[in-house]
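Hi everyone,

Forwarding the result from last night's run.
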Amino acid sequence: MEQHINAPISREEAGRLHAGDYVYLTGTIYTARDAAHKRMQEAIERGESLPFPIEGTMIYYMGPSPAREGRPIGSAGPTTASRMDRYAPALMDLGLGAMIGKGKRSQSVIDGVVRNGCVYFAAVGGAGALLSKCITSSQVVAYEDLGPEAIRRLEVKNFPVIVVIDSEGNNLYETAIIQYQK
């Protein structure tokens, strides 16, 4: 099924998505990779606020290349999501609405998705130049010293993703293999 949704995402909206759905995102999403996740975890442990509102937020696991002239961002492809697995459950427990990356997730992340009514989307790896065309603005909002791994606020329009793990724990990476073997 194909759906168009706005970011941030509500739990009700996440609950209507199913593994395998094609989704086009429009709105505000944030980027964060390993180093930024580590700093956010440290901030949480110190009782500090996160550098962006977490409720319903979508985090895109991406570190962009430099912007070309006239563009807000360079190539913007997904990075391997499992590198953030140790941090994701705590963020979901604080209200994170969705994650965007590529690749499989650990059982603790799947459990967090179900417990919190979240969703895990995959963006197509290797298509960073094409994905960047769906990004209308990019602004560093935290951890500028991390360079490409700084947290950015992105405005996206019709950003294409696929639901991999839905709020009920259905996992496209598992069901697609079963379907293919038939």
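The beta strands are 2-7, 22-31, 58-60, 98-101, 119-122, 135-142, 151-165.

Cheers,
N.
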